[in-house]
Amino acid sequence: MRGSDGVISVHLVRGDVDVISIWEPEPVGAIEELGDDAIVFQDRDLYREVFNLHARAQDLADPAKRRSIVTFVRSILKANKSLERHPEKHWPLVSEVTGFTLHEIEESWPELAFPGGIVPDMLDVLEREDVWVAQETGREPRSREELSRFIDHSVMEEALRQH
């Protein structure tokens, strides 16, 4: 079994630790090894990974760079659709790139999502996270209005129109 440091799951199975917090697909081995003793807590309201694309305003204002950004986003949307419709077709490449076995990828796949859009509660996420970032950087948290300016729907809308 692997873990992010190569031994996390082993420590759980041996009883050295009572709990692990780890990203998929790494817990697959521990879950299988523990069998009925495994308890998986998944609370997306408490924690989830939301990945995003950042672009500078000057690049969005440059027609050539904007076209390139929109093309990139459109390619991501296309890939996401393929991942959603036929995930098993992509598992060999995912395995090759990540080093996880096909079994680990298949077992963990239901926990993964590729929404290919701006999540509806993105502003809520930014608002909660900015409180922490502000504390860490010694500044006041930004207002909801200030944070809303960081979310630009125009690139996604353009990519969807051309998709």
Summarize the structure.
With 163 residues, the protein is mainly α. Helix content is 56%, strand content 0%.
Structure description:
The chain has 163 residues and is an all-alpha fold. It has one domain (42-162). Helix content is 56%, strand content 0%. The chain is built from 9 helices and no strands. It has helices spanning 8-14, 28-34, 57-61, 63-85, 87-98, 102-108, 122-137, 144-148, 154-162. Helix 4 crosses helix 9. It is flat. It starts with 7 loop residues before the first helix and ends with a helix. Residues 1-6 have low confidence and may be disordered.
Structural class: mainly alpha
**Helix-strand string:** HHHHHHHHH
Give the tally of structural domains: 1
- Number of H- or I-type helical stretches: 9
Would you tell me the overall average pLDDT?
88
Task: Note the gap between the termini.
Answer: 41 Å
Helix content: 55-70%
Largest sheet descriptor: none
**Number of separate strands:** 0
Rg, alpha carbons = 20 Å
Unreliable stretches (pLDDT < 50, length at least 5) are 1-6
Cα shape: flat
How much of the polypeptide forms β-strand, as a percent range? under 5%
Features:
9 helices, flat, mainly alpha, disordered N terminus
Strand and helix map with partners:
Elements: H1 8-14, H2 28-34, H3 57-61, H4 63-85, H5 87-98, H6 102-108, H7 122-137, H8 144-148, H9 154-162
